[in-house]
Amino acid sequence: MDTKEILAKLSNCDGVSGAEIEVREVIEELLADYVEEFKTDALGNSISLKRGNKESSDIPRVMLVAHMDEIGLMVKEITEQGFLRFTTVGGIDKRTLIGQEVLVYGKDTLEGIIGAKPPHVQEKAERKRAIKLDDMYIDLGLAEARVKDLVSIGDIVVVKREFNELTGNRVSGKALDDRAGIAVMIETLEELERLRYQVDLFVVSTVQEEVGVRGAITSTYGVVPDIAVVIDVCHGRMPGVASDEAAKLGSGPAITLGPQVHPQLHQKFKDIAKDLNIDYQIMVDNNPRGTDAFAVQVTKSGIATSLISIPLRYMHTSVEALDLDDIKSAARLIANFINRVDSEFVEGLECF
User: Fold this and answer.
1) What are phi and psi of 25, to 5 degrees?
2) Any idea which residues carry the catalytic annotation?
3) Which of 63, 159, 226, 303 could lock 318 by a disulfide, CB 3.0 to 4.6 Å apart?
4) Hey, what's the torsion of the CAs at 203, 207, 210, 214, to 10 degrees?
């Protein structure tokens, strides 16, 4: 599969936080040709291992991390008329929900639509306000008795959206935050097929990032790597977003700098990018709790952590958009970083 096919397969499957079984199965299928061992921990993280080319007891342990879960919805009430009231799982952009087609995972997979009272029958004051989540409903087109037979409180709901090709190398779809990071890890493994490296590489797809970076905590505690590379997304440049708060699509991954990033790793990534003429950008992130990097960094006595970000527009909607070249550049950058890590480099990492 090429990058676009991999990302399409990842985007089109579902895996809301706490219900990631489907996407985990797809990820492990895509990784199967590259890794030697698979493990699923008690929280549901997928942890795979690709051994390095060095026979030694002190071989470094490097962990790649990207989260597999996505934002979604959950049924919280079935009304007397058979409509579903719902809440969010993760920070979904509520403004984009009206008019969406959805899939409700009840006893069967049910198709529905999200609606609300139309402006024609709203009071004047109502028309001036944004529609609240409590005023939205899922309509399955079924009678109340049938709905109650098929749907239960707590059932998961996802927006029904197919991966879409835009012009050039641009694509859009749901859950590209952070299926883009998963795609980078798969592409990194493909790049490593052509390289010899001296680390044991743990490829970790984490769960429940969108509800509190939970999977990163348990998976890192289980692996205890010497170095971790977290791959996530950052805001892509678009109208109305300040240039210093976003990265340009198609100009390479963002090598992120902030309190969650080890300065020596940050510098190493920049040096490699310059040496190999890989396009890259620098992003400053002063809120470390926004990605798995924070949870990884503070595990046990601390992990030397770096963060590579893929520019993404329309984050936390069903039409997230990115440039495939940024995924390819990120994979090449990370693969060559892994290729240059050895015991001497790990021993030279200083505490900051």
Assistant:
1) -65, -40
2) 209
3) 159
4) -100
HSE, side-chain direction, 13 A CA sphere, residue 303: 32
Q: Tell me if 138 sits within 8 A of 84, measured CB to CB.
A: yes
Judge if pTM exceeds 0.85: yes
pLDDT (tens digit per residue) in 61-110: 999 999 999 999 999 999 999 999 999 999 999 999 999 999 999 999 99
Q: Give me Rg for the CA atoms of the chain.
A: 21
- What span, in angstroms and rounded, lies between the C-alpha atoms of 89 and 161? 17
Q: Which of 285, 177, 300, 166 is nearest to 233 (CA)?
A: 177
CA distance 256 to 302: 19
The tens digit of pLDDT for each residue in 143-155 reads 999 999 999 999 9
> Could you tell me which of 282, 277, 291 has the C-alpha nearest to residue 336?
277
Q: Is residue 104 part of a domain?
A: yes
Query: Which domain range does residue 104 map to?
Result: 72-159
338: left (phi over 0), alpha (psi -120 to 50) or beta: alpha
Calculate mean pLDDT across residues 235-250. Answer: 94
In the numeric block, which tokens belong to residue 41?
Answer: 């921990």
- 317 shares a domain with 282: yes
Q: What is the DSSP string of 217-228?
A: HHHHHHH--SEE
Q: Which residues touch 280 (CB under 8 Å, ≥6 apart)?
A: 252, 253, 254, 255, 269, 270, 273, 329, 333
